[in-house]
Amino acid sequence: MRMEVYYRMINSGAGKKLKEILNGLIPGLIPEPVPVRVPVRRLEQGGKRR
């Protein structure tokens, strides 16, 4: 199963309740997704584009 589909399923309404129950029984079983920061290049002030 792809991770995107997995996290979408886990973060749905019923999935959140299931996640709470399972994490209550076994702490850390289903980890929370960690946001990732992606660096963005800024254009130079002169308006030059490559």
Structural overview:
It is a single chain. The protein has a domain at 1-28. It is 42% helix and 0% strand. The protein has 2 helices and no strands. It has helices at 3-10, 13-25. The longest helix is centred in the middle third of the chain and has 13 residues, at 13-25. It is elongated.
Throw out a few tags for this protein:
mainly alpha
Oligomer: single chain
Count of DSSP-assigned helices: 2
Strand percentage: under 5%
The Cα radius of gyration reads 19 Å
* Major sheet: none
State the total count of DSSP E strands. Answer: 0
Q: Characterize the overall form.
A: elongated
Q: How many angstroms separate the termini?
A: 39 Å
Run of helices and strands: HH
Mean pLDDT: 79
Helix content range: 40-55%
User: Which structural class matches the secondary elements?
Assistant: mainly alpha
Which residues form runs of ≥5 with pLDDT under 50? none
